[in-house]
Amino acid sequence: MKVVSSEICPFVQRVIGVLELKGIDYDVEYVSLRDKPDWFLKASPHAQVPIIIEDRGVLFESAAISDYLDEAYGGPKLYPDDPFNKAQHSAWAELAAKNYLVQCGVMRAATAETFEQKKAKFLSAFEKVESALEDGPYFAGDRLFMVDAVWYPLLHRAAVVEAHSGFDFLAAFPRVKNWQRSLLRVDALARSVAEDFEALFAGFYLSGETYLGRLAGRDVPLSHAG
Ligand SMILES: N[C@@H](CCC(=O)N[C@@H](CS)C(=O)NCC(=O)O)C(=O)O
After folding, report:
1. What is the pTM of this model?
2. Considering only CA atoms, which residue is closest to atom 16 of ligand 1?
3. Minimal CA–CA distance to 13: which of 154, 144, 126?
């Protein structure tokens, strides 16, 4: 199977996290989203990554791909059997996926004012999931599920931002913070990004063009981080 990818895309990270958790073999092919090759434009209905290419054809949309991988392949099952619990997990997973681009927007904010405005919306997702978490270590106790893999890109990127800038999106959410710490220790999820992820991510989101980037460079006082 081939996963057509872009290096710092959270939707790709979600799919690769699922592949890794399930132990499925795959190859990655990166495409430039600024200069999309013709074969990719023909294969990807929305001209977006990720898509996966198998002998039977192409699948698109990271949620559909992830659910397909869970059903079609061996390895640990990533949803609970009980339909009610499964629907709950899907609903909480959807909240994370809806916030992938929200997080990208906050991280790209150029000024403190824009950052504060966008952050308020982003943090509401963590406020909501904080109330759904129990004792951990993961979303539903000591077994990893799809919902963990879907939240992982948000939590992992928050950790990278914190490591570079000192700003912690999760500071007000102790259960989410514990969940983040637990997920950061899962090797399979750590393999959801390429080795050069952090450098590419920092180059895009933590450059001198962004508020967080300037915070990382310490030329913005930390007290402005809120
Ligand atoms: N709903 C899609 C969203 C995928 C998406 O937004 N991918 C971005 C990269 S993170 C993309 O391909 N952008 C290129 C474009 O829209 O032209 C999914 O879940 O797979």
Report:
1. 0.95
2. 48
3. 154
